[in-house]
Amino acid sequence: MEVPYELSAYTRVLKLASTPGWGEFSQVSLIAGAGILLIGLMGFIIFLIMSVLPGA
């Protein structure tokens, strides 16, 4: 894979990129937060199962 070192290649990408609006940012933040909470909840449930099973 060849990495372009020309400045024009980078400026073209920066021209295509745009700053997200508040609505898009908040939607992405909510989805990411829900994913983090879901993964944490799954880890906590696995922790509870693993701490209860050895004592049974």
Which short descriptors sum up this protein?
protein transport; 56 residues; cell membrane; single chain; 2 helices; elongated; Translocase_Sec61-g; protein transmembrane transporter activity; translocation; mainly alpha
Please describe what this structure looks like.
Essential subunit of the Sec protein translocation channel SecYEG. Clamps together the 2 halves of SecY. May contact the channel plug during translocation. It is a single chain. The chain is 73% helix and 0% strand. With 56 residues, the chain is mainly alpha-helical. The protein has a domain at 20-55. The N and C termini lie far apart (55 Å).
Principal-axes geometry comes out as elongated
> What distance separates the N and C termini?
55 Å
Poorly predicted regions are: none
Reading the helices and strands in chain order gives HH
Helix content: over 70%
Give the overall pLDDT as a whole number.
88
β-strand percent reads under 5%
Structural category is: mainly alpha
Number of helices: 2
| Total beta strand runs | 0
Main beta-sheet annotation: none
Q: What radius of gyration results from the CA coordinates?
A: 22 Å
